[in-house]
Amino acid sequence: MLHFESWQGGAQSHRAIIIIGSIILALNILACRQTYADTPEDEAAKHIAQLYSDHALDAQQQLDVIISSSTDTTFADRLAHYYYQLGGRWLWMGEPEQMELCDALDSLLHKEVPAMGFKEETFRLKEIDDGLKLMRQPDSVNGLPVTMAQMEHDLTRAYLNYAVGQRYGFTTPSKLFSKGNYDIEVEQADSAFIAKALTQLRSKRRMLEFLAQAEPADSAYHRLKRQLKIDSTPEARNRILCNMERLRWRDAKHAKDADRYIFVNIASQQVWAIAPDSVINMRICCGKPATKTPLLSSEINRVEVNPEWGIPQSIIRNEVSYHAGDSAYFARRNYYITNSSGQRVNPATLTASQLGSGRYAVRQRSGAGNSLGRIIFRFPNKFSVYLHDTSSPSAFNRDTRTISHGCVRLQRPFEIAEFVLPEADAWTLDKMRLSMDLQPKTEQGREYKRQHSGAIRLINNQSVEPKVPVLIDYYTLYPNPKTGELNTWGDPYGYDNIVLKAIKPYLP
Predict the structure, then answer these.
(1) Which candidate, 337, 6, 9, places its Cα nearest to that of 189?
(2) Is a pLDDT exceeding 80 seen at residue 5?
């Protein structure tokens, strides 16, 4: 079922009490302002409302029993129950205009739940339908308190869980993926959202507008939703449903809302640098299934030319340490070792256990042959993964390019440099090219190269200002940002199966 922000005691419970109390006050004030015309329909509704009033005490007792025995599976469920436990007025039953509200929600869910590819049973739509029919038979009052209570409970839960699911996701990625593979901060439901949701229930128009706004506005989501009507094979539908759910997880940093951003799709093994008037697309190499590239959202703040590679301890322990004592191995790869004081250490003096103990660092000198290539794009992240060049460009010819330890290798990295430095003048770009042993593009650069022999190192670091958002994500079905076509890609990490398992309770 749904999983949201945990609800615990202390300050959060106190805040919930205040918010729920405010909801109750607001709804009561609104109720006092209601007036009704004496149309035949209103007279019938008033008659039904009188029956509700006659059975209100029994119905409230029945609702208390239902809530006390119900399993709180979601954050929305918990706050809904808390609302009633604090004495909140009923939201769906007991007033003339509320039947219209019930009908509107019932109609919307019957339309939208199948359009999302979900089954109606998840939202108890049959039970709601049966209850609405009974409510329209006012002469039959046997069991009416139970029906009223069950309807109030079912409608509130269906409404809140639909609203929260559409706005924040019917699953939560932090529950599905390890912290080592996922670090996109997604927006989450909170008590303020629940408060806003409940205060919309004094008007059919406001409720429907609120639910429409809860659905993702992303055009990609609506492309997939339309595609769901076309594709009929289980495999195709499952792929659509997984990616629709991903699009409900909204990046709290809003990388894709920026005018200029970089979008890395690990599933497609491609990157797009997206600006208002252009899109650059190229292949990437990314992490092996055993060393997956983490999904994250950050901002590129620095470009480094001719970087040294500080080899992660995991690679030192699992790969490099076995070559301790072999000075030739370290010389061939241009590696050097330092101790905790930063002093150089002769590889021949260390054993494998010593080198893999974590007390030593191994770095690869900059220049040709460096695993990071000649340029790297730095951005804050807890995994120490980046976008960078490579010393093995032939790998981009492969169809399957999940070969790295986790970083993202770029097919044409200098194009990304030009993208993240749009204000850089031609000479600055040529100084970067010369420092990377690339051919300059300006006459000034060509003249400089003619006058200087050997390695030219004019630029080491270049700040990126304003910072450029970068989103590393995972979609197996998504509109190609360059062509606009809806493209299907592989699932190299098997993430679709994880998402599919999580939303399976909702599927027919």
Answers:
(1) 6
(2) no
Element (H, E) at 204: helix 204-214
Residue range 324-345, pLDDT digits in tens? 999 999 999 999 999 999 999 9
* Burial class (CB within 10 angstroms; exposed 0-12, middle 13-18, buried 19+) of 189: buried
Distance of alpha carbon 101 from alpha carbon 115, whole angstroms:
21
Residues 283 and 416: their CA atoms lie apart, in Å, by 12
Distance (Å, whole) CA 508 – CA 498: 18
Q: Both tokens of residue 417?
A: 């440099």
Q: How far is CA 459 from CA 285, 375, 428, 444, in A?
A: 26, 11, 9, 16
Q: What residues form DSSP beta bridges with 472?
A: 264, 296
Arithmetic mean of pLDDT over the chain: 89
The model's pTM: 0.89
- Nearest C-alpha neighbor of 237 from the set 227, 247, 245: 227
Residue type, 216: P
The SS3 call for residue 438 is coil
User: Which 3-state string (H, E, C) describes 141-170?
Assistant: CCCHHHHHHHHHHHHHHHHHHHHHHHHHCC
Looking at residues 307-332, what average pLDDT do you find? 94
Helix (H, G, I), strand (E, B), or coil: what is residue 402? strand
3-state per-residue secondary structure call for 401-432? CEEECCCEEECCHHHHHHHHCCCCCHHHHHHH
Peptide bond into 505 cis (omega under 30): no
Identity of the amino acid at 394 = S
310's tokens: 């500080």
Least trusted range by pLDDT, from 4-13, 22-31, 102-111: 4-13
Percent of the chain with pLDDT over 70: 89
Distance CA 488, CA 123 (A): 31
Compute the distance between CA of residue 430 and CA of residue 227 in angstroms, rounded to an integer: 46
485 CB contacts (<8 Å, ≥6 apart)? Answer: 479
